[in-house]
Every structure is written in structure tokens, then in C-alpha cells.
Design brief:
Layout: E1 6-9, H1 11-18, H2 25-37, E2 41-45, H3 46-58, H4 62-74, E3 78-80, H5 84-96, H6 102-113, E4 118-121, E5 133-136
Parallel strand pairs: 1-2, 1-4, 2-3, 4-5
């Protein structure tokens, strides 16, 4: 998978990894370790941070918040802020794909604008979007 130089990780794969999902944790761990060894840049956006943190804050589980922070630091994850260019790109995406949710469109737009060449998700619907290679966790080796 060294053909990718910058990979965007969507919220679900991050949750599966950090919360040790029995079905997906090892797959994502292997994928991330290989990309780290290959010096592939991993990106996400502030949307992922917001979506991930809802459950820990609701349940007052600060350990999960610390786990996220450590992961982001240790893996040198780039965090993309949402700006006007990303918002406009997301609007175009939603205009083309009526069933895409606003947050998904913002994630895709952030990945495109920041030059990511792969988008790791587990939302099969997003594979319709062809401007960036969308890969589901199920498709990982």
C-alpha cells in the first residue's frame, strides 16, 4: 500500500482502533503500523475529534480522551481545521451526492483539499465518491 503518501482516517476506523473493536482493531493496527513504518502521513479533521469525544464526555471517561490525545501525538496525526474552502467543497460534494451527510462531506472535502490520496472509512456509501480513493476497513488486507 506504499502507493499512498497521505491518508485521511475517518472517525469509525479511529473508534474501532482506540476502543479495541474485536472485529476491526487488529486490521487497523496492522494498517497503521505499516503506514507509520513507510512514513506515510496520516491525517484527520476536527470533525473526527468532535465525533470521537462525544461518548467519552457523555460517560465521563477521561481515559478515552487521553488515549485519543496520546494516539494523535504518538502517530503524529495531522489535524485539519475546517475553513471556508473545505465548507464550499463539502457543499459541492453534498450537491452531487444527496444521501451524503454533512459531516461525511466535510471529511471528504478536508481530505481532498489537503491532498490526501486515500480516505479510510467504514461507510460503504462513500465509495461512490471518486475524487479520492475511499477504502473501507473491510477492504484492508
Amino acid at each position: 500500500m506504499t502507493e499512498y503518501s497521505k491518508i485521511f482516517i475517518d472517525t469509525a476506523p479511529l473508534i474501532y482502533f482506540l476502543e479495541n473493536n474485536p472485529q476491526y482493531h487488529h486490521k487497523i493496527k496492522f494498517f497503521l503500523e505499516k503506514r507509520y513504518e513507510e512514513k506515510v502521513k496520516i491525517m484527520t479533521s476536527v470533525i473526527t475529534i468532535e465525533e470521537y469525544c462525544v461518548f467519552p464526555y457523555r460517560n465521563n471517561d477521561m481515559d478515552l480522551i487521553r488515549k485519543l490525545d496520546r494516539f494523535m501525538t504518538d502517530m503524529e496525526i495531522g489535524i485539519i481545521n475546517i475553513d471556508v474552502a473545505i465548507a464550499k467543497k463539502a457543499s459541492k460534494i453534498r450537491g452531487m451526492f444527496r444521501d451524503f451527510k454533512a459531516m461525511d462531506s466535510l471529511q471528504l472535502a478536508a481530505a481532498c483539499i489537503k491532498g490526501c490520496d486515500m480516505f479510510l472509512t467504514n461507510d460503504k456509501q462513500l465509495r461512490q465518491f471518486k475524487e479520492i480513493k475511499c477504502v473501507t476497513v473491510d477492504e484492508l488486507p
